[in-house]
Amino acid sequence: MPNKIDAMLQLDNQLCFALYSTSLAMTKLYKPLLDELGLTYPQYLVMLVLWEQDGLMVSELGERLYLDSGTLTPLLKRLEASQLISRIRDVADERRVHISLTATGRKLKTRAAKIPGCILAASQCSIPELVALTQQLQTLRQRLVA
Asked: Edge-to-edge strand order for the sheet containing 97-101?
């Protein structure tokens, strides 16, 4: 009979493993959908933010995605090379870089619009279930970051 410590240390009882393995499964699900758009998952996240609010600073984008500039900069350079975004240094402060969608980047939003429906179907969850789960995970993230 396993004791309490053994039960606490079982892989299937770990929240971190449930989140990690679910994230892997989700990323695997997204991959063929994003391949059609020519995007990686992190690039897709950047595009989602910019489709919501174009013209952000790199620092604002980083805050929104919980990424530092060292991680974000190479990602943004690849998106710029793909002509989906432009990076423009602020005239008043060259340390600040504005990120804007190009016409091609804006058009890509139409092609990406099918992705949420594909994810919904694959999850076999109802919309209220996914909304509740998303809210729970956001609450957990806020508590962990605080």
From this structure: 56-57, 97-101, 85-89
